[in-house]
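Hi R.,

Here's the chain you asked about this morning:
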Amino acid sequence: MRGIAVLKRLCAGFAFGAGLAFASALAHQGLASEIEVLDARLSATDDGVALAADFSFELGPRLAEIVTNGVPLYFAVEFELTRPRWYWFDEKTANRRLELRLSYHALSRQYRLSTGVLQQNYPTLEEALKVLRRVRNWTVVDRSVGLSEANYEAAVRMRLDLALLPRPFQVSALTSRELTLESPWRRFTFRPTPAMTAPPSAPVEAREPKEAEQK
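And here is the predicted structure, written out as tokens:
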């Protein structure tokens, strides 16, 4: 009987230790797959309101292998601007998305970062990631949008868009966090300056001198 009791205690201790190891592995894996929003700020430009943001993350071995083998990775930077209203639903002032494509070209042995029609090549993956982690001069609120002199809630995040990966990788992402890379929403209060709330100036119409009109 004593031997059976000792065996039960040993099994319980082994199960507890295995559970801790498994939980620790999951926690480590979760930390490795997170993006951190280090900083986010808004400023006035001629086109409206622009966002500058800094992110911190590393590509895990699996994602680095995927992009080096020629499969592009698509990162999405998402921005929302909301004006809280106590008497009604919050006003959704802006909702923007910036798509950044990271790829590798075997012929030139260079990594390429592109958005829209703009693209730039880099000799190493780390140099491409250094640029990917910094968003600058991204117009998130057009000049034509009327902003009020009130407090707004701004939110920004970055994530790897799994929906744009080939189907086999999408299936693998369901069971493996190695292919998951995203940040939580970073929220901050934003109050427009008088320059941001001023309506855009109307174009001045050219008119001929009165003498020319009389002729």
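One quick note: The longest strand covers residues 91-105.

Cheers,
M.
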